[in-house]
C-alpha cells in the first residue's frame, strides 16, 4: 500500500498508509462521514486539560492548568514520564492574536500544556478572548502595557513567586518582547519565543513585498505626514473567517493535499479525529482587532520598527535593549510566514547576555504543534527552562 505524507495547512500529521478500496472500507467511510456531519464534536479533541481561571479583565483572562494524576502522559505514540519535582518559577504561555488559546492544548496526545507540566513546569496561559467588532479599538498598548503586566502579576500573586518565565508563539512572542522592552525590571527571569517575526522585511516573499511597499509608503509619510492612525479602526478589523482563509492560502498546495489525504483516509477514525482537531485551529479562528492591525501595518510591516529595536505604543517608549532576560528563540525550517531570517534577527536587538536561536522542523503551525514539535521544539524549550529554575 502506498505511504502518504499528510499535511493540514502549515501543520502536519503523521504519514499514513492509504488503505485499498473495499466495500467494507467504503461503508465505514460513509458512516464516519455521516457521523462527522451530525456530531462533529466527537472528532474535535481541543481544550481537554483541566484548568481554573485565576484572573479576568474584560475579554482577557488567565488560566492555571492542572495535570490529572498519572505516572505518564501520551505524546504522539510515546509515553512521557511525569516528573515529580516541580520547578520553582511558574511559566506563563502567551498565544498569538487571531487564534484560540487552546492551540497550546490541542488534544490529549498533542498538548504542549500537558507536556510542559509533565516536565515539571507550573503552567499558566493567557486567553485573549474573542474580540468582536465592538472590540476593534483594542490596540497594542492595551495588550502590552495593561493586560500583560496584569497577567504577570496575577501569576505571581497566585504562586507567591518572585519572578516568572514567559513563552510566546508568533505575535505572542512579540507582545512579550514589547512588554519587557517597555518595562525594565519586569519580574521575568527568561523568555522563549516560537516563530516570532522581529524583522518583517526578511519573511521570504512576504518580506520582499513588505520592504518594496515600505519605500514609497515611508516617503509619502515623510513628505505629507500621512498616517494610518486617524483612519477608523473598523476599516482594518479582520473577521475570523477572512483570517482563516488568509492563513490557509499561504500554502495552497498543502491545502489541496490535505483534502486528498482526507479522502484517502476517510475510513480511519483516528486519522479523522486528528485531522479535524488540527483543522479546528484553522477553521475556528477569532477576529483580529482593527486598531492592532492598523498598528501592525504602519509600525511593524511598513516601518519595520522591531528590526530597529524600538517602537512607541501610545505614550510608552519600547527599547529592546532593555530586554536583558535570558532568551531562547525558535524558528521553523519550512515556515513560509515567519522565515528563519525574520525570527533570528531577535538576537540583534535584545540586550540579553544569554541568548540562543534554534531551528526546528515544521511550518508556521507545525513548528509549534505539529507531529515533530514534541521531540524538537517542546523538548528544547523544556530543557532550556529547566536549567533556569
From TrEMBL:
It comes from the Bacteria. Residues 109-368 form the AB hydrolase-1 domain. It holds the Pfam family Abhydrolase_1. Keywords: Hydrolase. The keyword Hydrolase applies. The keyword Metal-binding does not apply. Transmembrane segments: none annotated. Gene3D superfamilies: alpha/beta hydrolase (3.40.50.1820). GO terms for molecular function: hydrolase activity. This is Hydrolase, alpha/beta fold family protein. The lineage of its organism: Bacteria, Pseudomonadati, Pseudomonadota, Gammaproteobacteria, Oceanospirillales.
Amino acid at each position: 500500500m502506498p505511504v502518504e505524507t499528510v499535511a493540514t495547512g502549515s501543520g502536519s500529521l503523521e504519514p499514513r498508509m492509504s488503505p485499498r478500496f473495499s466495500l467494507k472500507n467504503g461503508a465505514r467511510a460513509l458512516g464516519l462521514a455521516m457521523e462527522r456531519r451530525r456530531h462533529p464534536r466527537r472528532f474535535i479533541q481541543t481544550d481537554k486539560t483541566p484548568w481554573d481561571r485565576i484572573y479576568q479583565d474584560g475579554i482577557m483572562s488567565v488560566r492555571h492548568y492542572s495535570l490529572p494524576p498519572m505516572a505518564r502522559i501520551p505524546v504522539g505514540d510515546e509515553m512521557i514520564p511525569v516528573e515529580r519535582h516541580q520547578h520553582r518559577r511558574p511559566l506563563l504561555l502567551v498565544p498569538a492574536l487571531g487564534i484560540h488559546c487552546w492551540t497550546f492544548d490541542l488534544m490529549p496526545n498533542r498538548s504542549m500544556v500537558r507536556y510542559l507540566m509533565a516536565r515539571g513546569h507550573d503552567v499558566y496561559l493567557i486567553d485573549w478572548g474573542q474580540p468582536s467588532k465592538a472590540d476593534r479599538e483594542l490596540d497594542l498598548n492595551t495588550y502590552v502595557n495593561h493586560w500583560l503586566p496584569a497577567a504577570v502579576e496575577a501569576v505571581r500573586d497566585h504562586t507567591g513567586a518572585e519572578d516568572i518565565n514567559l513563552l510566546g508563539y508568533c505575535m505572542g512572542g512579540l507582545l512579550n518582547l514589547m512588554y519587557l522592552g517597555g518595562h525594565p525590571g519586569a519580574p521575568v527571569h527568561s523568555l522563549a519565543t516560537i516563530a516570532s517575526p522581529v524583522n518583517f522585511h526578511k519573511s521570504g516573499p512576504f518580506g520582499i513585498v513588505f520592504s518594496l511597499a515600505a519605500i514609497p509608503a515611508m516617503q509619502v509619510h515623510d513628505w505629507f505626514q500621512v498616517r494610518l492612525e486617524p483612519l477608523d479602526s473598523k476599516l482594518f478589523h479582520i473577521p475570523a473567517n477572512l483570517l482563516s482563509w488568509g492563513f490557509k492560502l499561504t500554502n495552497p498546495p498543502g491545502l489541496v493535499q490535505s483534502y486528498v489525504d482526507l479522502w484517502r483516509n476517510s475510513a480511519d477514525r483516528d486519522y479523522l479525529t486528528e485531522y479535524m482537531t488540527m483543522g479546528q485551529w484553522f477553521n475556528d479562528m477569532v477576529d483580529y482587532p482593527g486598531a492592532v492591525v492598523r498598528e501592525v501595518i504602519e509600525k511593524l510591516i511598513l516601518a519595520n520598527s522591531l528590526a530597529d529595536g524600538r517602537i512607541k505604543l501610545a505614550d510608552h517608549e519600547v527599547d529592546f535593549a532593555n530586554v536583558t532576560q535570558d532568551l531562547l528563540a525558535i524558528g521553523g525550517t519550512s515556515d513560509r510566514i515567519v522565515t528563519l531570517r525574520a525570527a533570528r534577527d531577535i538576537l540583534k536587538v535584545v540586550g540579553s547576555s544569554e541568548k540562543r536561536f534554534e531551528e526546528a522542523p515544521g511550518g508556521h503551525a507545525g513548528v509549534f504543534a505539529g507531529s515533530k514539535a514534541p521531540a524538537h521544539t517542546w523538548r528544547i524549550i523544556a530543557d532550556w527552562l529547566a536549567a533556569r529554575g
